[in-house]
Amino acid sequence: MAMKNFEKYKKVYDWKKPNRRTWTDKEITKAPIWCSVDLRDGNQALANPMNMKEKIEFFKYLVRIGFKEIEIGFPAASETEYKFTRYLIENNMIPDDVKIQVLTQARKEIIEKTFESLKGAKNVIVHVYNSTSTAQRKYVFKKNKEEVKKIATDGAKLLVENMKKYPQTNWYFEYSPESFTATEMDYAIDVVNDILKIWYPALKNKPIINFPATVECSTPNVFADQIEYISENILDRDKMIISVHSHNDRGTGVATSEMAMLAGADRVEGSILGNGERTGNADILNIAMNMYVTGVDPKLDFSNINELKEKYEEYIKMPISPRHPYVGELVFTAFSGSHQDAISKSLQAIKEEKTEKWDVPYLPIDPADINRQYEPIIRINSQSGKGGVSFLLKNEYGYNIPKQMMQEVGYYIKDVSDKEERELNSKEIFEAFSSEYINRKDKVKLIDYNVKSEKDDDVELEVTLEVNDKKIKKQEVGNGAVDAFTAILKQLEYDFEFKYYSQDAQEEASNKGEKANAITYVMVEDNKKHKSVWAVGKSRSTIKSSLNAVLSAVNRI
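^ that's the sequence the OP posted. Answer follows.
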């Protein structure tokens, strides 16, 4: 059934760029000027805003990540915001190379209190705004275009007047035509150009004109067209900075910001992980990491994603989606068998060939570069395959199972997962593998063995076995301990032939605390049932490892 009432909606503002767009032929080659709005836009959108201590700690963290511009609040709007601003300034918490940014409406009393709150600060961006859209003019302000423009230009003049009262501060000014995406382009340009005529002669620093997608009204390419059109028609483009502030109402905040950068934006406002009003802001981490994985330095340090996640959950108090790009619990996880196999083989090839460039299918980034572990990459459920299981057994437990054995083990683990009707964690996978294949002793058990003598290539082996709760001692001569042991078992009517035999040292198990062992892999065919089985032996002794493998096979037949 189709959704009803879609006919009642229309394009908020039906605009098309009158001349050819050029931004589609460009690419992002350098980081923009970043401005974090986590402490203002992000904080005001929280059900329980951060307290003073949390804001201070989060400010420190934003500085440590590398932000050079941080919007800290709306100091004239609340006493908490005012006190926070004063605390940072009076306690010298703002590094010399960091600009704090504050928001103010274009109203005289609010602007004056804003400047008062900033007394003694070194580098400050005062961000003034008023809404310019058709709907806001019509329904909220009930003013015409000239009257709304006068609000903006009066605010711009008030900033200049108040700046002169505090000459010790290095001032930067920013203006936002709020609801820009729903404003007529030529009118937006008219408003902005009149503001620039006021600011150019008064400021020593480039003014910032910020174009917000306050509510996403269209696809990202339309916003990029708007930014390019603005850039082509704004007054003295080279004397000012174009900034963008995208929200995420259509779920395209990241794409909107990225395309705006292609279209000429110099600066991007947003928040870490996209927290903000309604559906949130553009996610700066997402944008920065998208640059990183294409070989561009984002100029922000997200090398410890786990710490960032902890900070976010501590201060923002919101959960992070397990599928959130780069940060989510599952983003470096492959459930699909074919994906797991490709990852496993590619990681091994990169290791062996010492490849300089990262080139792993299904993993756009090396998790280690952002302090994520390889441990959770392969997770197993009923949809998983041999590649994932073998990768996990090798990388976490040091079992380099033969290629011919991978399929059987993969199917066995999938069957276990299917019966459990859930994902298996790495410990459960290893326990299932170990229980089924390693050192089986449920029917026949090796109590003791002794290599009694060696003549030429022959070995005399004496063993004590427990078969059906009865101890049996036997000895046999063979071409090695395995050959002698096989002969003993055939005396007990276990009739089989070897189809595969190999032994190697257990690879270093990542962090599971296992001691290195000799690992033996065998496949035998039961001559009575014409059934082939794989088995594994493990021991610090190479001989006992082999005997355990043979006995495991016998117990699995």
